[in-house]
Amino acid sequence: MKFIVSGKNIEITPALKETVIKKVGKLDKFFRQDVEAYITMSVEKNRHIVEVTIPFNGGVLRAEEENHDMYTSIDKVVDSLERQMRRNKTKIEKKFHGGSLRLENFQFEDDDVDEEQEFKVVRTKRFAIKPMAVEEAILQMNLLGHQFFMFSNAETNEANVVYRRKDGNYGLIEPEF
């Protein structure tokens, strides 16, 4: 696994970089060598945030944790990634078999594995999508009081999603073909 470590509002010291690579490196046994792990550490006021994104074989494993201490955030994000893999082991194995993931190394105690549940759609909602600008979609989302809003982008004529981020800003999801 290759590690790309970056910082935002923080200087990444060699000790910090070494620690995060060592901790996230524990997940190395589950991936092929060509997989890259993107690690972003940032500081906002008293919050120390660590975000890890590992794209593999068309899938993405991602976790973000925050704490008052950067080293605690690193530990929490690694635990979160392991928990995601543990919960979804069978589904991940079926979908990405033979790719960048090596789940033969993925062993847990029997009491450590949560009961796997089927994903169940409990509600389907249909609505007409009208072309609009991104700013108009954000306004519509806020008026509805939702965390996300799907719309047809007037500029690209493609389905897009705007969403409210944890930091209070907005994100835009665009399809890539």
From TrEMBL:
Native organism is Acetivibrio saccincola
Q: Which biological process annotations from GO are given for this protein?
A: negative regulation of translational elongation
Signal peptide span per the entry?
none
HAMAP family found in the cross-reference section: HPF (MF_00839)
Q: Which UniProt keywords apply?
A: Cytoplasm, Translation regulation
Q: What is this protein called?
A: Ribosome hibernation promoting factor
What family classification does the UniProt entry report for this protein?
A: Belongs to the HPF/YfiA ribosome-associated protein family. Long HPF subfamily. Belongs to the HPF/YfiA ribosome-associated protein family. Short HPF subfamily.
- What are this entry's molecular-function GO terms? ribosomal small subunit binding
InterPro entries cross-referenced by the UniProt entry: HPF/YfiA_ribosome-assoc, HPF_long/plastid, RHF-like, RHF/RaiA, Ribosom_S30AE_C, Ribosom_S30AE_C_sf
Q: Which Pfam families match?
A: Ribosom_S30AE_C, Ribosomal_S30AE
